[in-house]
């Protein structure tokens, strides 16, 4: 698997990683969620080169994550970048990364607290069942093939057969394809 070909992989984790998984993109999105919209403000807040920033912004615009609209300052036409609906849908992803970072990489505590403007309560991240509302962890979830996985079923079967031949196989792969005994393995 090559990083430059992740967008072709039949995986809903690898495809976003192909778009978002470089050194600058998530930081750029963090700034967009903080209200940064103009090229020069992105550049000054991130310290990234103009060419790198232009490349990342163009890629996010082309992917529909940001929109680009012209405005005129005293000297020339410039552009601002705003999160689209597709971009706004990345908010839970950034908040999940923040929560993980707060838990494991901030020994003195969170750098920022996020409060709900409606009630003032602290905002957290949780996964829950769409049907019953129960909070879930990796131990509570069994992945099933979705409509986009028709061509993958043979690969899943081959992976499971390989796992039976080599039981100490790839735990991450087991989690993603729903190895039937994984729940017990994780609880052990």
Automatic annotation (TrEMBL):
Record keywords, A-Z: DNA-binding, Transcription, Transcription regulation
Pfam families, per the entry: HxlR (PF01638)
InterPro entries for the chain: HTH_HxlR, WH-like_DNA-bd_sf, WH_DNA-bd_sf
Example of a GO MF term: DNA binding
Domain HTH hxlR-type: 11-109
Domain of life: Bacteria
Name of the protein: Transcriptional regulator
The species this protein was found in: Mycolicibacterium cosmeticum
